[in-house]
Design a protein that fits this description.
Blueprint (H helix, E strand, L loop, with lengths): L1 H4 L8 H13 L14 H33 L2 H26 L1 H15 L8 H30 L1 H4 L6 H14 L4 H45 L1 H12 L7 H57 L1 H4 L3 H30 L8 H14 L6 E2 L3 E2 L2 H22 L1
Antiparallel strand pairs: 1-2
């Protein structure tokens, strides 16, 4: 129970959340913590079996059904739905293979974030940081719940909607019959249920890594923003607690600026580390996210082509992924804007020349907004999300007019 409790909102510190994600990813044979124990061979076998089943069901059987089965039956809608599911499900596998290939870089990134967390935020912003990390944990739980809930609901279709189009029979059983020469509905059910949970599981787990890392960087930026705004008042408080006399004389001005200088050095160092880890994160996942956007655009276009009345069960899985990625990118950009405003609002006009120069340098650096991107082409944001929806609708209308 103590172990399960660490997955709840009672534990919102970065090391615990990284551990949460690491435990979830170990099930699919991904090790993101360099110093952790080796992954048991059972999980490697489990991941291998799941991947083989996935490609058999969603690609070998899909190609056979789309190229052969649909022509025999004339059921174009079934082919569209099968193709849509295959396109959307490939997103998780793409990210999984990408992490397998760059596992050493991911481990280095996680180590950098844990090391960054050892640099404690300023005591005056500790409560704010704790509140922000609690919000990050809520995002993590929500994303995992919606993604896995979608898998559960999808797998209930044969029970609650037996009269609807049955992909298990038309798609998987057809693939078993065509490729292996057997027709077994229970085997098809087990295969497709296992693959659905596998795809949603890896999507939610890898998405969880992005949520935790970007959320922590966002939280540190907002904490630094609060620290900048309180800088001058904290300097006066420090002077009144450690020195005697009027805080407006020349001696006081020197002590106040010495305090400001020290605090600015700490803030500059923390901000520089944050920039480095975000650039490292963006460099690792930018290509995987670009492929994800291409697949989602194609998959959503096919969903619309098949008609929402028949493909609506697939949409939450697709929309949650692209929506969360763009949401994380937007929140990071918003935090950068807050930090930039806080620098200008730090009462720098009261500082001496050296500290003013430091603030000016910080202001110039902060104007280079940190962001996540899809292949370095599109910046993840709400604007990008709307642009993708427009592209999907344009592709759908073009395909629809062609079919008609």
């Amino acid at each position: 129970m103590e172990t399960l409790d660490k997955f709840g909102l009672a534990h919102c510190d970065l090391p615990t959340m990284m551990w949460n994600v690491a435990v979830m990813l170990r099930v699919v044979a991904v090790k993101i913590e360099g110093g952790a124990t080796s992954i048991p061979i059972f999980f490697y076998l489990l991941a291998t079996v799941a991947i083989v089943l996935y490609f058999f069901n969603y690609y070998a059987s899909m190609l056979v059904f789309v190229l052969v089965g649909c022509r025999e039956t004339g059921d174009i809608l079934a082919g569209i739905m099968v193709l849509s599911i295959s396109m959307n499900s490939l997103i998780g596998i793409n990210k999984l293979f990408y992490i397998y290939r760059h596992q050493d870089k991911v481990q280095s990134l996680v180590a950098d974030y844990v090391a960054y967390d050892r640099i404690a935020p300023w005591p005056g912003t500790s409560a704010l940081m704790a509140e922000l990390m609690r919000s990050v944990k809520k995002r993590l739980i929500l994303f995992w719940t919606v993604t896995m809930g979608n898998a559960f609901i999808f797998n209930l279709q044969p029970l609650v909607m037996p009269s609807r189009l049955n992909l298990y029979d038309k798609h998987v059983v057809y693939g078993l019959k065509f490729i292996l020469g057997i027709t077994n509905y229970p085997i098809a059910i087990v295969n497709i249920v296992a693959c659905t949970f596998f795809i949603c599981y890896i999507t939610s787990s890898i998405g969880g890594l992005l949520i935790v890392t970007t959320g922590y960087s966002e939280g540190r930026l907002l904490a630094l923003s609060q620290e900048m705004r309180d800088l001058w008042s904290d300097a006066h408080k420090h002077y009144s607690e450690n020195f005697e006399g009027d805080s407006e004389d020349k001696k006081a001005a020197k002590e106040l600026n010495n305090y400001v200088k020290y605090r600015l050095q700490v803030i500059v160092k923390s901000h520089a580390i944050n920039i480095d880890v975000i650039k490292k994160l963006e460099g690792i996942f930018r290509n995987a996210i670009a492929v994800e956007f291409i697949l989602l655009t194609a998959g959503l276009s096919i969903d619309l082509l098949g008609g929402l009345e028949d493909t609506y069960i697939i949409l939450p899985f697709s929309l949650m992924q692209v929506g969360m990625d763009c949401y994380l990118g937007q929140k990071l950009m918003d935090a950068c804007k807050v930090f930039e405003d806080a620098i200008y609002d730090c009462k720098w006009e009261n500082f001496d020349v050296k500290n003013r120069k430091t603030v000016l340098l910080m202001l110039k650096i902060s104007q280079r907004t940190l962001s996540l991107s899809a292949g370095g082409v599109a910046t993840l944001s709400f604007e990008c999300l709307m642009a993708m929806y427009k592209a999907v609708y344009s592709a759908y209308t073009a395909l629809r007019s062609t079919m008609e």
